[in-house]
């Protein structure tokens, strides 16, 4: 029998992050959180095979031991109001007794030996260090446009972290319609290329961190894994095999720059969206001082027409002969609403592509959309 005294406030903060990794697992033991007591420190681990999280807290224990917390035990611990409580661990019976000021709860669990072993982290190399919130912000912006169910190209269901020339790009691609990238300056000599699985996104952003939190990324030599460490949390992430699309080749030089107010375009698109469906095409006819927006729902004989003010300029000696483009209404609305700036810049590269940027920085969200649809 092992007796452990635990601070409940600190434990609850840890459990919030750890349980985000234990949902929808296929191995029964992984629905638990493993606790290893070593020298009055409780090292806690959760895993879904693709992502594992490890963190620790200080405890007072009668001896070293290992045990698994199941969902019932976690639910009880989250309900307990006491600042401190006691765990009695009976290793021979695989039972946990939770004792607080109002009573006790005995729960049967699974053997700790059935949990997976994490890789040895001795042979690692640091490849990136940056503010944690910058990484999370980039992931949040690009995850919205990630590909889904691309079985012929599974790398499209991942985010791509690519750093070159002190610029880190977090890129997502949906297989043909959208390419989104978040860019930030990172002073690091070596270039990096990582396929970041989208299944790691939720466990990572569950931890809120602090404004001063720094995240470090390490690679495990000779293994298709990388480690992400922020404060006292360590994420072990299985990287997707394969290569990402050469996204830079999809970004030709822009020819026309159009500036308009975000509030104007969002209001217009939301009105047009009322009469549209998921497949409705938005026709944009542009002039030097205004954009004419037109949508049509052929199935139900509905259409709308709205004009909004804009400023249009040619870039250098470039001119775009075609004066209108066609684009997915719902995707354009989603992209612009995801833009934090009050002003939106639309760069037209040809009749088939456009690039949307924020105005306050050249190092910001970029979205490429195909426009190869018939004109009205």
How would you portray this structure in words?
With 376 residues, this protein is an alpha+beta fold. It folds into three domains: 113 residues, DNA Polymerase III, subunit A, domain 2 (DNA Polymerase III, Chain A, domain 2, Roll); 125 residues, Roll (DNA Polymerase III, Chain A, domain 2); 120 residues, DNA Polymerase III, subunit A, domain 2 (DNA Polymerase III, Chain A, domain 2). Helix content is 16%, strand content 43%. The protein has six helices and 26 strands. Strand 15 and strand 16 form a beta hairpin. It starts with a strand and ends in a 6-residue tail after the last strand.
- CATH topology grouping of the largest domain: DNA Polymerase III, Chain A, domain 2
Number of helices: 6
User: What CATH architecture label of the largest domain applies?
Assistant: Roll
Provide the CATH top-level class of the largest domain. Alpha Beta
């Amino acid at each position: 029998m092992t007796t452990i005294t635990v601070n409940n406030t600190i434990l609850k903060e840890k459990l919030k992050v750890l349980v985000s990794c234990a949902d929808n697992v296929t191995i029964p033991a992984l629905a638990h959180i493993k606790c290893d007591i070593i020298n009055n420190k409780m090292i806690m681990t959760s895993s879904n095979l693709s992502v594992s999280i490890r963190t620790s807290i200080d405890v007072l224990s009668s001896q070293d031991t290992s045990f698994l917390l199941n969902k019932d035990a976690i639910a009880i611990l989250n309900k307990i109001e006491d600042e401190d409580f006691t765990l009695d661990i009976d290793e021979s019976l695989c039972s946990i007794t939770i004792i607080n000021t109002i009573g006790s709860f005995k729960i049967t669990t699974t053997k700790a030996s059935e949990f997976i072993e994490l890789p040895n982290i001795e042979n690692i190399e640091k490849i990136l260090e940056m503010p944690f919130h910058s990484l999370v912000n980039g992931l949040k912006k690009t995850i919205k446009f990630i590909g889904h169910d691309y079985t012929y190209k599974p790398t499209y269901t991942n985010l791509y972290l690519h750093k070159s020339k002190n610029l880190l790009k977090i890129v997502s691609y949906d297989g043909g319609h959208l390419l989104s990238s978040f860019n930030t300056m990172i002073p690091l000599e070596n270039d990096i290329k990582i396929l970041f699985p989208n299944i790691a996104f939720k466990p990572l952003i569950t931890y809120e961190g602090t404004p001063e939190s720094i995240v470090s990324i390490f690679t495990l030599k000779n293994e298709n894994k990388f480690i992400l460490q922020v404060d006292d949390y360590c994420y072990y992430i299985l990287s997707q095999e394969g290569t990402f699309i050469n996204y830079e080749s999809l970004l030709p030089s822009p020819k026309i720059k159009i500036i308009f107010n975000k509030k104007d375009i969002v209001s217009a698109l939301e009105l047009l969206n009322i009469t549209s469906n998921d497949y409705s095409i938005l026709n944009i006819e542009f002039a030097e001082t205004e954009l004419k927006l037109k949508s049509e729902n052929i199935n139900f004989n509905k259409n709308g027409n709205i004009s909004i003010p804009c400023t249009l300029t040619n870039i250098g000696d470039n001119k775009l002969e075609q004066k209108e483009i066609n684009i997915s209404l719902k995707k354009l609305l989603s992209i612009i609403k995801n833009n934090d700036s009050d002003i939106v810049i639309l760069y037209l590269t040809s009749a088939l592509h456009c690039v949307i940027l924020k105005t306050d920085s050249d190092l910001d969200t970029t979205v490429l959309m195909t426009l190869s649809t018939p004109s009205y």
